[in-house]
Amino acid sequence: MTATSEHWRDDIVALLPRLRRFSFALTGSAADADDLLQTTVEKALSKYDQFKQGTDLDKWMFRMCKNTWIDEWRSRRVRGPVVDPMDFTSEIGIDGEQMIMDKITVSEVSTAMNRLQDEQKMILGLIVIEGYSYRETSEFLDIPIGTVMSRLARARKALEDQLHAPEIQQGA
Fold first, then answer.
1. How does DSSP assign the chain, residue by residue?
2. Mean of all residue pLDDT scores within the chain
3. pLDDT at 90
4. Residue 162 has pLDDT above 50, yes or no
5. Is the predicted pLDDT of residue 57 greater than 80, yes or no?
């Protein structure tokens, strides 16, 4: 292994927390996010020879993650939904009104995010969660900045509508 490939791997490792948050924003599930992240990193490591020096590694990895998710999403539409048994486990021993309220809030946002279109999840994940600029997001997703801005506005509006929908507030 050359020093260049070692440095490259270190850069990928440094990106892992941000890629995992982006993966979670896309999938809405911790298990699916971990699977997506693992698949993305495996692809990146196997395609090291295709990485062009001078290319923005963030851009390359986030685009690979997005494309991997799109492929997986299309595949799931054919196979049908998968039920995660961990979704049905209870958290024994947790007490306290604030913890319950925090969990409800996170649950509401997660439910609302899961109902958004994939392109809206991607935009929110990159701009709101990861803090990328419109220009960087435009480059990652290979779309015009105007499209980024309009999708972000629609995503924020859709998320707000979802959070104020009666079925989410009632815990449906």
1. --HHHHHHHHHHHHHHHHHHHHHHHHHS-HHHHHHHHHHHHHHHHHTGGGPPTTS-HHHHHHHHHHHHHHHHHHHHHHH-----GGGG---TT---HHHHHHHHHHHHHHHHHHTS-HHHHHHHIIIIIS---HHHHHHHHT--HHHHHHHHHHHHHHHHHHHTSHHHHTT-
2. 78
3. 47
4. yes
5. yes
Distances (CA, A) of 121 to 54, 92, 129, 149, 154: 28, 31, 10, 13, 11
CB 8 within 8 A of CB 51: yes
Per-residue pLDDT reduced to its tens digit, 147-157:
999 999 999 88
Q: Pick one of 3.50.50.60, 3.30.43.10, 3.30.450.20, 1.10.1740.10 as the CATH number of 1-89.
A: 1.10.1740.10
Q: What pTM did the predictor assign?
A: 0.55
